[in-house]
Amino acid sequence: MSTPLFRCRDLRVFIRNNEGDKEIVKGADLEIKAGEKHALMGPNGSGKSTFAAALMGDPSYRVEGEIFLQGEPIHDLEPHERARRGMFLGFQYPVAVPGVSVANFLRAALGARRGQEVPVREFRTLMMDDFAKLDVRREFAGRYLNDGFSGGEKKRLEILQMMLLKPAFALLDETDSGLDIDALKVVSEGVNQASTPDNATLLVTHYQRILDYVKPDVVHVFMDGRIVRTGGPELAGQLEDRGYDWIADEVAAGAGGRS
Questions:
Q1: With a threshold of 0.70, does the pTM exceed it?
Q2: Check: CATH 3.40.50.720 for 6-92+169-258?
């Protein structure tokens, strides 16, 4: 049996408040093999985004449990160290950075990923190739990072980073949020192009619509800080048709598990 590309074991995530630490993620186990795309679905407030941020090492949270990437433990690493090892997080709400151009940001990110500066000519070729794949205009490179960007432009830039950096494991937190149907198709095609037999992707989403274009191998349902159901792609269709209440009722009755 091959080692999963990504694995977390009994992950618990806490956030500090006035009453002490509040537990958001309550013991999550997840394994993803190379070449697989998984979807993590669940209602608002279930802890999906917290789970993704904690996997990336967000210092806002206190984390217990183990996280492995390509068989190596990474739970004690800082976020930038996890990124160098091959983890990538696509944000639900990307931050604007006035004064830093898209091109300069992407070149710095690629250099950090490689551990050495990327020659300008090589970088421009790589960037423009990926611009073409995502139908991005050349002048986009000179704009300030996410400053005045539409929702679709921000998400295209997230996927552009993913394509350029070639992470081993990509976490995409609600990449479909705020996208119209045309932007959704372009972003989804970028995710599909970036997916290879050697990497893995976890898509965090509320809805099935992105899964019509990015076909998952496995679907997980996240509720109240836990993965309560795991199944095949058909599970996403069931959630679209029936919502989440039926799973919540089954979990309450002790019937959760693999569908």
A1: yes
A2: no
